[in-house]
Structure formats: structure tokens, C-alpha cells
């Protein structure tokens, strides 16, 4: 096209502009229009071309207003050398004082930028040459001092609370850089469209009604960002959903918008009230409040009306192929695809009245999806009462039909979903446009998966049915209710999602990275207590007082301003069995005959006087003497202890599966149920804990000194508390 105007030989500058136009223009329908301006040498610079491309993206409808386009792109604007000289002179005059002080260390880019702002279409090289010339005239040649490097200013350090580490996932490892999740989601960070500028998104389909619909949309939303989290209420949310919650609610929050919690309740056979309740609980537990709680079923009447309209427009038909016939790739085309509109309307009404058995008829849409799937189902017959609409309906819409239309009704601006839904993007746009309703934009991101676990509803149900786990909230699972029960703080889960980052690629992470996030938060949140898992009785034979002593223990030893709690010290105490040995090996620093230890927080050092054993030779009691710490020789170690303790049950958890990918047949040929770790749960029935935890409620968290972080389990009852170990104090090197 350019050669027809300029002849066979094109100069390099024109060739570069043509190449950039073709490479950067997403919608080729305007390519000829742009080439015409380049060939006529009315677009001469890359700056003009960038403005032209932006104009075309912002004006998707034909015909383009040539005069408006030319004004926006600087066509015909001629900048004289005198204008450039005057603009640079004005900028240098503005910064003259700083230039004289800083000389050539001054940021010359600032002068360039301001001059460019004054003369938008001026040539950049010409402006730079003029800046250099006038600066030289003002300051003279560079001196030795000017040639020295300017010392870098020290960067202000962020407080820990302002930091969150973001993922760079490489080969399963996470490198870190400091950026909060909200920073990742704010403004231009994700290159998402602005509300009302849906048409600027690559692949978005523009119809003659698009701009009017977007204008109505903006009038309703006021330009507000709107997202939604749309779970199916047929299972419990898992760690992958935590990323979706953080992304949807976080993107809205970061950009001053709102997020809906919308239940996709279109499959009444599998939906239960407990799932609705648990989903909302988990969203709020993670710290988010929905703008509104809605249900797909709220819109069943409107969806049905639109289905009739789709048939009338010749875009949907009633089909009698069986489910088995249309499953898989390349199913045979429906012989009913071209049936008359009136016939489909009557048959669809018969479907609604219950005149067809389940599987005898479906309503299908006339389109081919990205993955080659042809004519997806919009409605199917199900004689199952709905938990909200009762027996009103015996036909229910599918995800492919419901999702985009509910987004449209709620005026969602950014429909964020995981990558596997990319194949449904074309049907999303097609359906909204087929009905001439507002069309949101679907954006996809990568799923978050964890190793050493399964998260599919079907597989978790199998684990429950076989007794491998107790229920959906068994602390060995990675459902959100299970993580809460195990003691993971919501902040740790949100921080983990921030570290994984908002990636398009699927991220498969090691559980120890989530555990590390838990340790960081619990170290700041969990007050200290002392507990003994395998108790050994110790009697202090020279107890220094006629009654129990009161020991003050800091809730947070690193910050005593957060208070203390009291624990009693009696002549009888209990220590860990593993903290005593009859013979001290080399490197062993705890209690042994001839090797005293200190009692944490008590101010006393104890030394073994007598070892008492049962008939089998097992040590069952120690008799010791105590000495005040300030007069005793400093011991090699300090150990934890309890006195007049509470009996409790402690549950110690390990990974549920032995292999990283229990669902991978190449790794686990016998299936995931054959890969269960027999040591995933160890119950300590007669552990002892100090009395400071007596009033703790379910989900309260503690650090048991030297043992790990623990959370009160809801199974706790009066007289027998139950604790779940959340994580150990340090990462097990074997798990990393």
C-alpha cells in the first residue's frame, strides 16, 4: 500500500513506522487507514504513531473522524527551531538556580521532559541538542568536579509492617522483592483496562451498540471498578481459592472499587447450606467484606427471558442429543441445529413445564469456542428442588450461559478467572453481544497449586469417606477451614498469596513456603506459654519456700511491653523426657547427672541428685536440688517446664501424602489413596500445659516454648483442652 504511493524504494524511517504500525495495531481493520497517513508522510515520528494507535484503540467504531484524528496525532503541525529555542530557554530559566548549584549533576532529563510537554510534537533529538547547547552556554565546559559521580541518596527503608514479599517463582523456589499485594494490583500495575474502556482490551468484540452500552454502564457505576468472587456452593474453599479471593477483592480494594460475593448456585443436586455459610465465613476470615452477597438464582427469571430472546434471534435451539454423544472432542454436529425458531420456542417451554425427562432435551447456543467445542449447552432439565427457588424450576442454566450474563447484570468491570477459563472467553463475549447487553471483560490469571496435597472436591470426599481424614476441616488438608482449624492466621495466607504474586502462569508451591508465612505472623501474634508433651516428673528436694512461688513469664520475650502472665512453681514440676539423659553425650547440653540446667523464666538452676526408675528400668522421676541463677554457675542450657499444669491433648500433624504429586500416576501408580502418610497424625493424649491458657477459646494461638506454634481446637471441652500444632518453630530441613 505504501509503495503504491511512494514507489518501490521506501526509506528506513518510513519502513520502521510501517513495521511498528503493523506490529502494534491489535485490530487490523484500521491498518490501511494508518498506512495511508504514513505513506503521505503526514505521520512522521514514532511519537505521532503512538498517538495514532491510541486514538484508534479509543475509537473502535467506524468511521473515524479524520479531522479529530489529525488533531490528536499532530498531523500538519510544524515546530520551528525558534519555538524549540524559546521552550528550552523557558525551562532553563525556571530551573536556573538549581542548575547553577548542581551544575552537570542536575537531572537533564527533567529539562528534556518539560520542554517536550511544551512542544508535544517536536523532534526529541532537536530538543536534546538545544538543551545541551543552552546548558553549555550557562555553565561552561565540564570541570573535574562535574565529572565525579554523584553519590547515591540512601533509600528510605520500609517498616516491616509495610513490607510484603512478592514471588518470583523459578524452578519451585521463590526469590523475593518487596511489594505489597495491593501495590501489585493498583492502577496501571496489571495493564488492565479502565472502567468503560473495555474496547481497548485485545480480543474484545465491538458491535454497533457497544459504545452506547458502555455509556449506560458508566452512568450506573460512576466509573467504579467492580469485581466478583463467584464460587460454586458445593464444597469448601481451598488454598487456591485464597488467591482468587485476594485477587478479586484485592483488585477492587486497591483501585477504590467494590467486589460482589456471588454464589454460582446453578446445580441444585450438589449444593448444601453448610457450603454457603462456610464460603462467606472464609471470605470474611481472610479480611474481606463483600459489597453485596448475590446468587445466580437471583437472576433466574431474567436468564430465562434472555434464553427465549436468544432463540428468537436464531442463536439457540433445543437439541435431543444425549450427554454421551456431545462429550469429548469432535462430537457429531446436532441434527437439530437448524430447527425452526418457533419449534425451539415451543420445545423450550415444554422443557420448563417438565415435559421432558432429564437428558432428553437441552438448549444449546450456536457458537464454536476457542477449544473447538461446538454449541455449548445453555439449559438442561433437572428435577431437583433448588434451596432458594424450591420447585419453581426444573430447568437450570449452565456456567457457560449464566456466568457472563450475571456479570453483565451486576455491571462487573473486570471478570477475573483462572487460566482454564480462557477457552470460554469467546463464548463470554459472544453471548453478551448476541443479546445486545453490556459486555464486561474477562481476564485470566494462573492457578495456585500446592504440592503434597489434593484439593478437588471429589478427592476430598473420597478421603472423608475412607476415613483417611475426619472431614473437610481436617487440619491435614489445605481447605481454608482446615487451615483455620490448624491455626494458620488469615494474614499468613494473604501474605503467601502476595508472595506467589499475580502471575498468568500456574504456580505450584511447596507447603513449607506457606508455613514460613505462618511463622512470621505467629511470631508477632502468638503469646508464649509452656507445655510438656512427654512429661517426666521432677521433685525439687530443697524447694526454697513453704508454698508455691509465682513466676512472671513475658507474653513476648522480645517485647516485654506486651505484658506478662503468672505461672506457679511448686516443689513438683514436669519437664520433657527428652530433656534428660542418664549419660551426657558430647554436644548434649541439657539435664544429666553432673550437668545442671536452668528453668526458663524461674530464676533457678536444677541439678540431679537421684534418678528413680520403675521395675522395667524406665526413668519415672528425678529428685533434684535448686540454686538461684544469680549465684549458680551459668548452665549450658535452659529448658521449659510446667508445674500444677492442665492436662491436654496435643495433635501433631505431618504431610498427608508421601509424594509431591499424589495425583500423578507416574509418581503414584496406585492412586492418591495409596500414597497416604501413616504418620500424618500423632495424638499425644496426656500432654501438660501451664495454667495461663485456661481461659483460651477455640482458634486462640500460642507459641509453646521450644516446641512450636499451637492453636486451640474446637474439640476442646471443660477439663480437657485440645491443641493442634500449626507449625514447628523452625523449618525442618528435610521438608525444604
UniProtKB/TrEMBL annotation:
Record keywords: Aminoacyl-tRNA synthetase, ATP-binding, Ligase, Nucleotide-binding, Protein biosynthesis
Coiled coil: none
Residue ranges annotated for the Glutamyl/glutaminyl-tRNA synthetase class Ib catalytic domain, each copy included: 224-523
Example of a GO biological process term: glutaminyl-tRNA aminoacylation
Glutaminyl-tRNA synthetase class Ib non-specific RNA-binding domain ranges (all copies): 9-124, 127-215
A GO CC term assigned to this protein in UniProt: aminoacyl-tRNA synthetase multienzyme complex
Entries under InterPro entries matching the protein: aa-tRNA-synth_I_CS, Gln-tRNA-synth, Gln-tRNA-synth_Ib_RNA-bd_2, Gln-tRNA-synth_Ib_RNA-bd_N, Gln-tRNA-synth_Ib_RNA-bd_N_1, Gln-tRNA-synth_Ib_RNA-bd_N_2, Gln/Glu-tRNA_Ligase, Glu/Gln-tRNA-synth
GO MF annotation terms: ATP binding; glutamine-tRNA ligase activity
Pfam families named in the record: tRNA-synt_1c, tRNA-synt_1c_C, tRNA-synt_1c_C2, tRNA_synt_1c_R1, tRNA_synt_1c_R2
Reaction(s) this enzyme catalyzes, per UniProt: tRNA(Gln) + L-glutamine + ATP = L-glutaminyl-tRNA(Gln) + AMP + diphosphate
EC primary class: ligase
Family of the protein in this entry: Belongs to the class-I aminoacyl-tRNA synthetase family.
Family matches, as PANTHER family: GLUTAMINE--TRNA LIGASE, GLUTAMINE-TRNA LIGASE
Protein name according to UniProt: glutamine--tRNA ligase
Protein's gene: Qars
